[in-house]
Design brief:
With 129 residues, this protein is mainly β. It has 1 helix and 11 strands. A hairpin with a 6-residue loop joins β4 and β5.
Length: 129
């Protein structure tokens, strides 16, 4: 079973940056994708960015393209989400997740409705002046 621990959330002004980290522990057999999902109050859950553990290919939802980057950290079992040019509409609780689906897009898109294999407790991000 995979355990996920997110960190790095907080309060930032519009235009600022934050870096979220996800520490993965436990059994990673069958863990092919890592992703970040978010949910704001009153909004539906959204797959923000997902990455293939095997080849590093990525998927981003349209609203964050060019601003967010998902990647593997130098630490072997840590993935991060670098968020730049943050906007108030980025405010949400961000959850790290892992999944056995075959592509990052499948994880980010289908994972919203169908669920993913493992889910972290989340870290809140607030973008406000």
């Amino acid at each position: 079973q995979v355990q996920l621990a997110e960190s790095g959330g907080g309060l930032v002004q519009p235009g600022g940056s934050l870096r979220l980290s996800c520490l993965v522990s436990g059994s990673t057999v069958g863990m092919f994708q890592v992703g970040w999902f978010r949910q704001a109050p009153g909004n539906e859950q959204e797959g923000v960015a997902c990455i293939s553990v095997l080849d590093g290919s990525t998927y981003y939802t349209n609203s964050v393209k060019g601003r967010f980057t998902i990647a593997r950290d130098n630490a072997e079992n840590t993935w991060y989400l670098q968020m730049n040019s943050l906007k108030p509409e980025d405010t949400a609780v961000y959850h790290c997740a892992t999944d056995s689906r075959d592509t990052p897009q499948n994880m980010c898109v289908r994972g919203v409705a169908l669920g993913v294999d493992s889910w972290g407790k989340g870290t809140p991000v607030t973008v406000s002046s």
